[in-house]
């Protein structure tokens, strides 16, 4: 679940100052002056850091919050600190502008975006031998021929082949999206306001305090991860990650607190309703459903099956989770499609602006009218020629039709051609809907491609064709929406569209190299994909299973699983309908099915962490008005510190240096079981 619904709270004074012509007398640098060597170096460093963090989140639970605030904040801090340092040495350096800050932000987000859309925690892992082995060679439709294990060479080549199509697909439509339709792209707008605030006097002072706060919690999180390592011993049953703080019975059902700073931070960033939905899903699944279904062992499914056998309880966990995800995804796909079509219809019929409300700009329309003219001028003057976008897309499509069938023999060239003919239409729908609602449905379009291409290819390579088709569609659609968000950010910061386009290309190049390298660090250092380990990589099996369902149909489900899947699929639809039709004060308390689905398969432990994060934020917001200013910095520090610990942890693992201590509760558990099983002692 990639959280694109997050807003950023900014001081009202800073917001007003940045909107009412604060920069009206500041000259706008030319597009090539906005792209600097120092900016690219900072982008590469931050891109590597955020790729590590994204992989860690992807390979553990899969909940990835928006880290745009941290990226913008750290980009500002590094370059600003460098210019101040040089000035103290008496060395002149080029002034740091908001346009350069925007370029860095765009570059970093493009780089770390590939760690998600590149499929390292989803469809690419669905191809590997571990996912095949989890399902088992006897599982219907699970063929050994549909296996491709990760390697640096083909992953980098694959990303270079498919990751640039989305950038070229919608460039010609940027004027229509941003100027004619006036789509707000809320996350892009919030990022622009954040960057604008950094470059005001008051905003720079707050940014320095936020960075200091981030640094403190970064250090604390890193040191806590180091402390936890000393107690984690050998294997997966030692340490604070397996601390039965809620009792041994709850621990057996994955209800325990694992002292993860990462997911406490994620809980502080994600909206309260997301965290509560995750906890509710954990209670429904691991607290009620799985214990009840397990009592049917020997009736619904054979007894004494391995814990990872899809013919047993494991199959119910996976397929019911898939049903919830697909139900929520299909509903939102239909909803966004209807909103998009209605908006286009009204725009075409009435030739009026879309009904997109921008209250902030409306309140100060008179003061910013001149600034808006300047924005339009910059946005129109330095664009990307249509022939560049068109020829680039055609050339990349031809390369893909040649290269992808060589990498994946099951994928025919005409599958790729069909994907690239359809992709711009879906990319437009996703980018348009994202501009209206701030929802990017990249993974939903990817799953749609998965089922289409798996069914098209059939039993002869359909699983691999479906997974590759999922990757192609997900990459193009996600990148196109990200690019339009960046154009909106650039529009509000007076950054040239040409510099935005080039920085997106530069960030994508960095991501094509950095994302596989950082993933390889995890893959070679840890037991990725082990259901009992730290890096469970849960979505690899889910995506492979969906591809098999696309080929084989629903005959692969265990008994009574289809009925349960239908119930939860319909429930996801109904819950979403109620959320969208209920009054706002009621809908705010209705859970989100997609968030509820995450713990169904993975476990309940991370829901405890996220709920603790949301409780901390809730009371902080009640006690202090500063919470909204500093909470993103605190949360980002917790996430980054724990994420960066992955590097020394991987180095220790590769050097075969094991933790010196093991803290576990097996003996306590054995004593308790012995006590309850033995007869009471005779009276004295």
Automatic annotation (TrEMBL):
InterPro entries, A to Z: OPT, YSL-like
Q: Where in the cell is it found?
A: Membrane
- Transmembrane regions: 39-57, 103-125, 152-173, 273-293, 313-334, 384-407, 413-432, 439-457, 463-484, 505-523, 561-578, 598-620
Please provide the record's keywords in A-Z order: Membrane, Transmembrane, Transmembrane helix, Transport
Cite a single Pfam family from the UniProt record: OPT
Chief location of this protein within or outside the cell: membrane
Q: How does it sit in the membrane?
A: Multi-pass membrane protein
Report the family membership: Belongs to the YSL (TC 2.A.67.2) family.
Q: What is this protein called?
A: Metal-nicotianamine transporter YSL6
């Amino acid at each position: 679940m990639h959280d694109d619904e997050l807003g950023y709270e900014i001081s009202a004074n800073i917001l007003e100052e940045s909107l009412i012509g604060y920069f009206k007398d500041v000259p706008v640098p030319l597009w090539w002056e906005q792209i600097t060597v120092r900016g690219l170096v900072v982008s590469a460093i931050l891109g590597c850091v955020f790729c590590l963090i994204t992989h860690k989140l992807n390979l553990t639970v899969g909940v990835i919050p928006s880290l745009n605030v941290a990226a913008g904040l750290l980009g500002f801090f590094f370059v600003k600190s460098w210019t101040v340092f040089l000035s103290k040495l008496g060395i002149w350096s080029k002034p740091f502008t908001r346009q350069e800050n925007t370029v860095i932000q765009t570059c970093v987000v493009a780089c770390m975006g590939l760690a998600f859309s590149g499929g390292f925690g989803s469809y690419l892992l669905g191809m590997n031998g571990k996912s095949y082995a989890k399902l088992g060679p006897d599982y219907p439709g699970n063929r050994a021929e549909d296996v491709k294990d990760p390697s640096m060479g083909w992953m980098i080549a694959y990303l270079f082949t498919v990751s640039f199509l989305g950038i070229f697909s919608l460039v010609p439509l940027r004027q229509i999206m941003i100027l004619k339709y006036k789509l707000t792209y809320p996350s892009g707008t919030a990022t622009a306001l954040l960057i604008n605030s950094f470059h005001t006097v008051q905003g720079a002072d707050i940014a320095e305090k936020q960075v200091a706060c981030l640094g403190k919690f970064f250090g604390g999180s890193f040191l806590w991860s180091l402390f936890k390592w000393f107690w984690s011993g050998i294997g997966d049953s030692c340490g604070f990650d397996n601390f039965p703080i809620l009792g041994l019975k709850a621990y057996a059902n994955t209800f325990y607190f694992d002292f993860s700073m990462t997911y406490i931070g994620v809980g502080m960033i994600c909206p309260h309703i997301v965290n509560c939905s995750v906890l509710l899903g954990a209670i429904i699944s691991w607290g009620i459903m799985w214990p009840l279904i397990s009592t049917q062992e020997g009736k619904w499914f054979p007894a004494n099956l391995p814990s990872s056998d899809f013919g047993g309880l494991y199959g119910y966990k996976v397929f019911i989770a898939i049903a919830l995800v697909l139900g929520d995804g299909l509903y939102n796909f239909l909803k966004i499609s209807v909103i998009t079509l209605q908006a286009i219809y009204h725009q075409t019929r009435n030739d009026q602006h879309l009904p997109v409300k921008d209250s902030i700009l409306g309140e100060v329309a008179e003061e910013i009218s001149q600034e808006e003219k300047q924005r339009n001028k910059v946005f129109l003057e330095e664009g990307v020629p249509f022939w560049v976008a068109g020829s680039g897309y055609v050339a990349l499509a031809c390369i893909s039709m040649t290269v992808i069938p060589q990498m994946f023999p099951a994928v025919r060239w005409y599958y790729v051609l069909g994907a690239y003919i359809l992709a711009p239409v879906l990319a437009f729908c996703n980018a348009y809907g994202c501009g209206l609602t701030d929802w990017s449905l990249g993974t939903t379009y990817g799953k749609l491609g998965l089922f289409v291409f798996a069914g098209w290819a059939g039993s002869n390579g359909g699983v691999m064709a479906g997974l590759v088709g999922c990757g192609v569609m997900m990459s193009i659609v996600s990148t196109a929406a990200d690019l339009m968000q960046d154009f909106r950010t650039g529009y509000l910061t007076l950054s040239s569209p040409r510099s935005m386009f080039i920085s997106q290309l530069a960030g994508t190049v960095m991501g094509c190299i950095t994302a596989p390298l950082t993933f390889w660090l995890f893959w070679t250092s840890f037991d990725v994909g082990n259901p009992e380990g730290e890096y469970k990589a849960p979505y690899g099996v889910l995506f492979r299973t969906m591809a098999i369902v696309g080929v084989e149909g629903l005959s692969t489900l265990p008994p009574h699983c289809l009925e349960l899947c239908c119930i939860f699929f319909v429930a996801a639809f109904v819950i979403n309908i109620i959320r969208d039709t209920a009054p706002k004060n009621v809908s705010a308390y209705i859970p989100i099915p997609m968030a509820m689905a995450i713990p169904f398969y993975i476990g309940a432990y991370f829901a405890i962490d996220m709920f603790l994060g949301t409780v901390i934020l809730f009371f902080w917001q009640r006690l202090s008005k500063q919470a909204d200013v500093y909470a993103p910095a605190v949360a980002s520090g917790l996430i980054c510190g724990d994420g960066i610990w992955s590097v020394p942890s991987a180095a220790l693992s590769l050097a075969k240096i094991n933790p010196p201590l093991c803290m576990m509760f097996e003996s306590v558990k054995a004593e308790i079981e012995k006590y309850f099983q033995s007869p009471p002692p005779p009276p004295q």
